[in-house]
Amino acid sequence: MPKIGFHASHEQFAPSALLACVKAAAKAGFSGAMSSDHFGPWSEAQGHSGFAWSWLGAAMASTDLSFGIVTTPIGLRYHPAIIAQAGATLAEMFPGRFWMALGSGEALNERITGLRWPAKAERNARLKEAAEVMRALWAGETVTRDGLIPVEEAKLYSRPAEPPRIVAAALTPETARWVASWADGLITINKPVEQQRQLIEAFREGGGEGKPLFLQVHLSYAASDEQARRNAHEQWRTNTLAGTVAAELKLPEQFDAATRFVRPEDLDDSVRISADLSRHIDWIAEDLGLGFEEIYLHNVGQNQRAFIEAFGEKVLPALAGTIAGQSTHLRDAAAG
């Protein structure tokens, strides 16, 4: 059955507040969660950035939800052996409840160690190497490699019975086609339907047929459309930047400067803005129709409790009915 989860945005909330939010989301009926993994926020208006890996231990111990994290183990901020160990520990403690998505990263987070920020092609090569290193470590191998990310006699002694799934993050058809051959699944963000179809098709053509599709949805819900739009503009207008631009900016104030001319009405292609819960239900039902199996909802405003309560009361039950109807239709079609 498809899963509708809650996105925990470390850039916007203190870790303690975010833990309270994910507990409330579990109680409201969300069936999973995912976490960002930043060193700094995208905007000074967001104002937070806790260490996601220690937070995950608390969150997973406090709820029964499955959790994922979007991370960048390309040998700058994180070495893949360290992330393999972190992921193995969570997977051993909470069997079947942890997955990770790998991305090529942004300078905002990765260049803090003072190492050279590589070009995109090198970051992609590092990312594939990182996935290979982690899988070998989870398999119990002693890993020594000379490559873009050197590894010397690394071995994990505490390993889970089943390693975490490695899902790849992609924003373009080109990246989706490339990751399809080595990732266990794909995660992307909401975008116009035709663009989404093109990305999914590229993933399937590149070797992703039969692999799961994950979606992170940026939305803004509030008591009125006007307030929802204000929330999105204040907190998430940086999402209008192209990925090629966002990857190169180094500081939150640079993101703020790059988006200073973005107007509230410019956000509709990147954030789903509406006070109408039925509109959100229709959007998510459309996502399910495209084939996404796990959808993680990120309300970009500060009003997390109102979002969790409203979606728990109205949206999740309606989507459960939609999913049940789709399953019945498929069973009937198979039987016929």
Biggest beta-sheet profile: 8 strands, parallel, barrel
Secondary structure: helix percent = 40-55%
Overall number of strands: 11
If you compute it from the alpha carbons, what radius of gyration comes out, rounded to the nearest whole angstrom? Answer: 19 Å
Any idea what the CATH superfamily is called? Luciferase-like domain
General form:
globular
Q: Quick one: CATH class?
A: Alpha Beta
What's the CATH architecture?
Alpha-Beta Barrel
CATH topology label:
TIM Barrel
Mean pLDDT over all positions: 96
Derived structural class: alpha/beta
The proportion of residues in beta strands is 15-25%
Please, how many domains?
Answer: 1
Number of helices: 12
Which regions have little confidence, pLDDT < 50, spanning 5+ residues? none
* End-to-end C-alpha gap: 21 Å
User: Helix and strand succession?
Assistant: EHEHEHEHHEEEHEHEHHHEHEH
Order of strands across the main sheet: 1-2-3-4-7-8-9-11
Keywords, separated by commas or semicolons:
336 residues, alpha/beta, two-stranded antiparallel ribbon
